[in-house]
Amino acid sequence: MSAQGGLLADKVVVVSGVGPGLGRSICLRAAAEGARVVLAARTESRLKEVAAEIDAAAVPYLPGARESLAEGFVPGGSKRNLDWVRPHLDGSGVDEDELIAALKEGRIDVGFGRLHHNDPNVAGILMREERLALAIPQGTPFADDTSPLPLSAIAGQKLIVYPKEPRPSYADHVLSLLHAEDVRPAEVHEVREIQSALGLVASDAGLCIVPSSARQVRSDLHYRMIEGERATSPVILNHRVGDNSRYIELIKALIVEMYAENPPWLGLEHNLPFRPSFVK
């Protein structure tokens, strides 16, 4: 991979969420196209893994911290250095309204979100419908089996949802799914981030509904998929209407490559059988 003269030469790209999957792939491609990449992850080990891959390719990166890209956070830089993407797909991060506003104001060019919107100035391309899983404490009755559970199993249980703020967010998506199925938990505890939510699950304080790919966050919990085609969370690529910039085409090209490689996290275990329109 060559970092010289690429499409993103002299740009700063911030990627919040560099674990396995889309975040890691975007880091490597952005670096290969000449960008200085700010890495952010929940664990130091994942940061080091991706940084090592970039180092092996002899391209630049900047170790960063987990921040909202809509706030224009670039260590040692300014808001105007921020040109690219927010692929933070576990449901945390800025709220969808803020993401759409950042796109319309030109603070970012591309944003990945988990809620549909109706803004006529922002195009939303559905990338995939990711299945949902239930995070369960080890040693509890639900942890005795690995088969999928219906949403109705959550009725009468203590449920932990995230993020508490800002809203609207992934938490609202989960609560809407439960409301549509008339599933009523015994109580709902809202916390700020997935780490806090899964920490409470580990302490047997309740259950938590997470996107399937988020099962990698904690391996000391038991996970069971949730039944039904409605028990999903969309992953949506957002950009300004009429914006045909090279950054958008670069991301689309990367996504096409990822589908061609068919990584496990794009498989039917984790997603409904769907592909975006630009992927053949």
Structural commentary:
This protein is an alpha/beta fold and 280 residues long. It has 6 helices and 10 strands. The chain has helices at residues 22-32, 44-56, 96-104, 170-180, 194-202, 246-261; strands spanning 12-16, 36-40, 61-63, 110-113, 122-136, 158-161, 187-190, 207-211, 222-225, 232-240. The strands form 2 sheets. Strands 4, 5, 6, 7, 8, 9 and 10 form a 7-stranded mixed beta sheet that branches. It has a 3-stranded parallel beta sheet with strand order 1-2-3, with helices on one face. Helix 2 (44-56) links the parallel strand 2 (36-40) and strand 3 (61-63). The two termini are 25 Å apart. Mean pLDDT is 79; it is low at 59-93.
Which descriptors would you attach to this protein?
single chain; 280 residues; alpha/beta; 7-stranded mixed beta sheet; 3-stranded parallel beta sheet; 6 helices; 10 strands; 25% helix
Q: How many distinct beta strands? A: 10
The N- and C-terminal alpha carbons lie at a distance of 25 Å
Helix fraction?
Answer: 10-25%
The SS-based structural class is alpha/beta
